[in-house]
Every structure is written in structure tokens, then in C-alpha cells.
Design goal:
The complex is a heterodimer of chains A (120) and B (107).
Chain A: E1 3-7, E2 11-12, E3 18-25, E4 34-39, E5 45-51, E6 58-60, E7 68-73, E8 78-83, E9 92-99, E10 107-110, E11 114-118
Parallel strand pairs in A: 2-11
Antiparallel strand pairs in A: 1-3, 3-8, 4-5, 4-9, 5-6, 7-8, 9-10, 9-11
Chain B: E1 4-7, E2 10-13, E3 19-25, E4 33-38, E5 45-49, E6 53-54, E7 62-67, E8 70-75, E9 85-90, E10 102-106
Parallel strand pairs in B: 2-10
Antiparallel strand pairs in B: 1-3, 3-8, 4-5, 4-9, 5-6, 7-8, 9-10
The chains are: A mainly beta (120), B mainly beta (107).
Chain lengths: 120, 107
Amino acid sequence: EVRLLESGGALLQPGGSLRLSCAASGFLFRSFDMTWVRQAPGKGLEWVSTISLSGGNTYYADSVKGRFTVSRDNSRNTLYLQMNNLRADDTALYFCAKGCCGGSGMVDYWGQGTLVTVSS
Amino acid sequence: DIQMTQSPSSLSASVGDRVTITCRASQDIRNYLAWFQQKPGEAPKSLIYAASSLQTGVPSKFSGSGSGTEFTLTISSLQPEDFATYYCQHYIHYPPTFGGGTNVEIK
């Protein structure tokens, strides 16, 4: 059974930093791209970032480029999202998701999400 | 970036109804189109990829069609567990963008 468990969400002030983690199990982690998607309270889904299976290629939404960094540790089956210079509009539930289906950022399985709140 | 537009943004339907949701892309995305279902307080669930291919375990009452710029998701006979918000997403290239969602409510 595919399982994705996000952690690291918190309440913090604008300008702060945070690292999210996503522990994966139930599939061969190193064989799949991985993606972060976020959802602001009461809003729709927004793709944030994707990292290739080896970690050699990373992609970001314009809204986070230069502030967020995605990485992975295939020996630990863990995906990360380093978030710097956080803003109020980064407030959202952050989901990690497993890649699939031969496309750019396409995913099949999702975690339950971790909440990031940026407020002064 | 490619814009994805869903219609309607919400609809009310009864159990047993046939429901169709439309998703339009601002440019040709061939069949690089996925559909997701999200219930309140839950993570999204993948229903369909490649415009018409059902993910493993998704019941056949869900079907997808279309190519190019216009796509549809159809639920053949709406059941209580189908009341949710549905999102389309293109994934032909980065950034993959989602539609605004369609909230399917009980009439």
C-alpha cells in the first residue's frame, strides 16, 4: 500500500523558514518523480514543485521560485521542501504526491498534507 | 502558462443523476489531462489520467473523454459518496496547472 506522510508544518511569521518532509512507503521511491501541491484555505489546488526520480531535475511554480527548494533522499525514502522568506500567501495545506503516468507533474497517490500558516 | 477552465464551478444533482463536468485548456494539451476528486477534509484522489484512462480501483461509473482543448468528466449515476469537488489538471509540460474545481452538491 502506498503511503505518504507529510510533516513539518507550523505557524510562523512572514520572512521565516521551514522545511517540510514527506516519508514514503509501499513503492519503490527512487523510481518515481515526486511533487508538492498546496491548497490555501477554502481554495483550489496549486502545483508547487516537482523533482525527478534521481533528484537531478527540479521544477517550480513562479510563485515560489527562488524561495523554495525541493530535494529528496532516496536512501531514506523521503522528500523535502525547504521554504524560505515565507509570505502570508504561502499559507496552505501542503501535500506531497507520487509521480505517475508519464507526464510533467502528473501524480496518482497523495499524502494527507501538512499545514503551513504564515501570519504576524 | 496554460490556463484550465472548468464549468460549471458548482452544480446540484440528485442521487442517480448523470453528471458531466467540462474542462477547457487555453492551448492544445493533446490527451495530457487528469481528473481528481476531493472530499472535504481529505486529500485529493486521482480518478483519470491521459484524458480517459481510469486509475486502478476507480469505479467504471467515472469516465473521461476529449483531446486537444476540450475535455469532460462524466459520472454515470451519482451516488452519495460522489458528492465532492472535482479538479482537472494538464500535465503536458511545466507548470502543470489545475482547473478551479467543480463542487458537486446534493440537490
